[in-house]
Amino acid sequence: MITDEQLDDLRVTGTKVRVVRDHLEMNDVVGIVVAWDDEQVMVRRPNRRIVKLSRSYRYELASEERGEPVE
Question: What is the CATH number of the domain that holds 53?
């Protein structure tokens, strides 16, 4: 699970993240972290829509190569 400190760093810098939810790359969510709580993270996608995602998903920098999802 991603920590509050990591989420705060991503939010402050405005770094794009990739959220890997399963084994299909087309299901990844790419955007900017805007808020979070104990269970969910809110990510703003390029089309300006906000998506609520579980903190248990894998969060990685969008500029890096895609990793495998967390089981």
Answer: 2.30.30.100
CB of 57 closer than 8 Å to CB of 38: no
Task: Write out the chain's pLDDT in tens, 71 residues.
Answer: 899 999 999 999 999 999 999 999 999 999 999 999 999 999 999 999 999 999 999 999 999 999 877 66
- Alpha carbons 31 and 23: distance in angstroms, whole number: 19
Sole residue written with tokens 């990591």: 6
**Considering the domain boundaries, does residue 71 fall inside one?**
no
What token pair was written down for 44? 């703003």
